[in-house]
C-alpha cells in the first residue's frame, strides 16, 4: 500500500482500532478482514485507515466484500479500489461507495464485475 491519495477521498476515516471498536471485534479480526479483502484499508499519514461510510453501524456494508473481491480479481490494488469506489459517477448518481448502502448496490456490483472483462 502507498501513501499517495486518490483523486476522490472519503469524507471521513476510521483507524483500524476504531473499526474494531465500532464492530465490537478484536483488532486481529479487523486485520484479517483487511487481508481477506472483506474490508478496505489504505495508508494515510503512515496509518492504515478505513473509509468511515464503509462501516455502517456495527457491520461492514453488506455488498462491500463482494465488490472488493471483484475489483481485486480485475487486478485493482487497494488504492485503485478506493479510487474506483469514490470516483464520481453521474449515472448512479454519486459515488459507488455511497450506492453500496442503497438499492443501487446490484448495479455497482455489475459494474465492478465488468471491469474484469
Automatic annotation (TrEMBL):
Rv2175c C-terminal domain residues: 62-116
Domain of life of the organism encoding this protein: Bacteria
Name of the protein described by the UniProt record: Transcriptional regulator
Organism for this UniProt entry: Phytohabitans rumicis
Organism lineage string: Bacteria, Bacillati, Actinomycetota, Actinomycetes, Micromonosporales
Domain DNA-binding protein Rv2175c wHTH: start-end pairs: 12-54
GO molecular function: DNA binding
InterPro entries, alphabetized: Rv2175c_C, Rv2175c_wHTH
Short name of one Pfam family: Rv2175c_C
Amino acid at each position: 500500500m502507498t501513501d499517495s491519495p486518490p483523486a476522490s477521498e472519503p469524507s471521513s476515516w476510521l483507524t483500524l482500532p476504531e473499526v474494531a471498536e465500532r464492530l465490537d471485534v478484536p483488532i486481529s479480526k479487523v486485520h484479517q478482514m483487511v487481508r481477506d479483502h472483506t474490508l478496505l484499508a489504505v495508508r494515510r499519514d503512515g496509518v492504515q485507515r478505513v473509509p468511515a461510510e464503509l462501516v455502517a453501524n456495527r457491520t461492514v456494508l453488506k455488498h462491500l466484500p463482494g465488490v472488493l473481491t471483484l475489483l481485486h480479481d480485475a487486478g485493482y490494488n487497494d488504492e485503485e479500489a478506493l479510487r474506483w469506489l469514490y470516483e464520481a459517477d453521474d449515472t448512479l448518481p454519486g459515488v459507488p461507495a455511497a450506492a453500496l448502502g442503497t438499492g443501487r448496490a446490484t448495479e455497482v456490483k455489475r459494474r465492478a464485475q465488468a471491469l474484469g472483462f
